[in-house]
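Morning!

As promised:
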Amino acid sequence: MNPKFSAYATPDILVDTDWLAAHLDSPDIRIVESNEDLLLYDVNHIPGAVHIDWRRDLNDQTTRDYVGPEAFADLCRRHGITPDTTVIFYGDKSNWWACYAFWVFQLFGHTRAKILDGGRDKWEEEGKPLTRAVTSFKASDYPVPAKRDDASHRAYFQQTLAHYEAGKKLVDVRSPKEYSGEVTHMPEYPQEGVLRGGHIPGAKSAPWARAANPDKTFKTREELEAIYAGELGLKTDDDIIAYCRIGERSSHTWFVLKYLLGYSQVRNYDGSWTEWGNMVRTPIEKGA
Amino acid sequence: MYPVALSEIIELFEFLPEVERRENLINYSDAAASCGRKEGETYDLEDVRKDEECTDTVGVYVRIEDGDRVHFAIELGPKVQTLTKAMTAILCRGLNGCTAAEIMAVPADFVPRIIGAELVRLRSQTVYYVLGRMKTAVKMFQDRRRAQQA
């Protein structure tokens, strides 16, 4: 095992690029690419990888929610994923959407799941193989999960409001200017419908990117602890909610806190700032 | 309404099934690399910058031929998204050789007709960015020429 991984709370939650390159033909895994760049998978991808699109495959656009158990089972069936398949997620943007897809799989209890450390960028940087050929897998008979377990992993607005009122820990993972309210969108992105700038009162700022190295891999446990335990003062049994703007950057931080550092109660508030920032009569705080 | 070459591209894409639409967008994305400056060519205006709206640097180079026929070369940084690359190649093919007035009159409403409903998303607004940069470059050239003539 990669020596860096052994220090994490859940060492086998990550695979590195060399491991994946050696296991491309393993029948027990399914490699899943999830990106922000909508056509990047079509350009090329890791051989054997299938594509899961966060909006088309994971979201229910009508209800601004996630797909239900039936649709999740259908998605897995289409890609030949069974409950025993280990799903390896990777993608662009430092694995934002890979972590997001991983998180959605956890809502449905698919715990045989891992993240490729460094994601697509590291794989490309190392000159490892990419292909445009799309591999089809025999459809599986993935059973419909009994329910979507939002309670363990996900925070709704009302729960986040109660969390704030109780003075519990909130981590704002957006950029410093989004946190302070100076801007309502991150650099290089459009404004996504937010009316007010600022943050949830009491939330601590820890931009997601601080958890990543320049090569997009996760920082070491020691480095991560210095940020989240040292600077933010988070304790491993704290009840924590992470948020960003629509829930993808906070999926990255949720993954870091839960699996790399072993925080036992971490939820992702996917409504995030596009919900909180627009909600009538909901308090916000401005400034760093 | 649209220059003829751009119109032909729009019509090609508009009725394509989703799979073929994606394949064609990828082909155009691949072709973006050939939209850059050609060795030995000179340009009347160069506008190279990294804006907040786009993930990497975009360089727009304008050359005027035959009075007011505009020819573009566009160079994209490696982090530019695939749809933006595709739109760059489409616009270079669709607008090169048009007059400045024709380019400035092109409305942006053709973009969804090319990329399709499945790929039109709030986070893919950079597909409009390249057209904006091309128009800006043309306007900069026109303003400069007027100033020189005054």
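The longest strand of chain A covers residues 29-33.

Hope this helps with the figure draft.
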